[in-house]
Amino acid sequence: MDTSPAASDELVAITTRYEMPRAFVMLLRGCADLTSSGKLEEIFGEAAGSGCPVIVDLAGLAFGDEHLLGHLLAAREKGDLTLVGPLSRQFHQRMDVTGTVECFDVQPDLTTALAHLPG
């Protein structure tokens, strides 16, 4: 079974900052793989520099590789990180196999994620 992304499934990343509550939110759509590692580096760097809790919405992510997982783990080590799901079957399985699924706070939607931020 081929679990690699199709060539046309480019990663789309949208970022925004919320003021009440303070948060840096990124929405990731499509496929996060080796071809998008530069984009991931840039947006996770921006998130780290924001000084805000970070929310990453993965509900529209079709494919996520070890580069994305590494960025998520690094962001978690630097501060508050919340994921928004549901996670794709493929990415949830990657997290499960690597033993990292329990490392993250996963909320069902952005509204709930924002409500759970420290206050």
UniProtKB/TrEMBL annotation:
Superkingdom: Bacteria
Sequence ranges assigned to domain STAS in this UniProt record: 13-117
Protein name as annotated: Anti-sigma factor antagonist
